[in-house]
């Protein structure tokens, strides 16, 4: 897998994957209203691409997922806005591979922060498995952090 800056020509495919991935959350406890903002918006994804936050995950020339990443100005903290894998590629290790690539994408990065819905058993177990530690939670979200070597 390669993680690279998204290309404009691939936005429709990336948005279709985002939509399919987040729509699949209905199978792990989501209600119809529990989708991230703009998860299915082409203009929003174009904006994220133009600002340098949208990445595409590519395997053998096929886009299989994506990520929205925000690096702090200090260059030491990365916030993962979201990651997503096409559901047709679930259970192939692509999510794990994508997270490993995200963790090394920005040189000098010392920590990663992210949040995920409290109800999402699948993502909470996934981030814990990858060594992310819960730092707080509220009524809706669990906040995780991982210190990098």
Give a short overview:
The protein is an alpha+beta fold and 149 residues long.
Model description:
This protein has 149 residues and is α+β, with helices and mostly antiparallel strands. The chain has a single domain, classed as Gcn5-related N-acetyltransferase (GNAT) (Aminopeptidase, 3-Layer(aba) Sandwich), CATH 3.40.630.30. Helix content is 29%, strand content 32%. It is built from four helices and seven strands. The chain has helices spanning 11-23, 42-50, 94-105, 121-129; strands at 2-5, 54-59, 62-71, 77-85, 111-117, 133-137, 141-147. A seven-stranded mixed β-sheet has the order 1-2-3-4-5-7-6. Strand 4, helix 3 (94-105) and strand 5 form a beta-alpha-beta unit. The longest helix has 13 residues, at 11-23. GO terms for molecular function: acyltransferase activity, transferring groups other than amino-acyl groups.
Order of helices and strands: EHHEEEHEHEE
Main sheet record: 7 strands, mixed
Our count of domains comes out at: 1
Strand content: 25-35%
CATH topology: Aminopeptidase
Labels describing this entry:
29% helix, GNAT family N-acetyltransferase, acyltransferase activity, transferring groups other than amino-acyl groups, Acyl_CoA_acyltransferase, alpha+beta, 4 helices, Aminopeptidase, GNAT_dom, single chain, 149 residues, globular
Tell me the layout of helices and strands.
Layout: E1 2-5, H1 11-23, H2 42-50, E2 54-59, E3 62-71, E4 77-85, H3 94-105, E5 111-117, H4 121-129, E6 133-137, E7 141-147
Parallel strand pairs: 4-5
Antiparallel strand pairs: 1-2, 2-3, 3-4, 5-7, 6-7
Domain N-acetyltransferase: 1-149
GO molecular function: acyltransferase activity, transferring groups other than amino-acyl groups
InterPro entries: Acyl_CoA_acyltransferase (IPR016181), GNAT_dom (IPR000182)
């Amino acid at each position: 897998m390669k993680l690279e800056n998204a290309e404009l020509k691939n936005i429709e495919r990336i948005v279709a994957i985002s939509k399919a991935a987040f729509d699949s959350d209905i199978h792990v406890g989501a209600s119809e209203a529990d989708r991230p903002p703009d998860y299915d918006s082409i203009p929003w994804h174009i904006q994220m691409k133009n600002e340098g936050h949208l990445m595409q995950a590519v395997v053998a020339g096929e886009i299989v997922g994506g990520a929205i990443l925000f690096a702090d100005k200090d260059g030491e903290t990365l916030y993962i806005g979201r990651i997503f894998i096409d559901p047709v590629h679930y259970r192939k290790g692509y999510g794990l591979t994508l997270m490993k690539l995200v963790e090394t994408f920005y040189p000098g990065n010392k920590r990663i922060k992210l949040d995920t819905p409290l109800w999402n058993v699948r993502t909470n177990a996934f981030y814990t498995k990858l060594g992310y530690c819960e730092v707080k939670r509220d009524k809706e979200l669990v906040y995780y952090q991982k210190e990098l070597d």
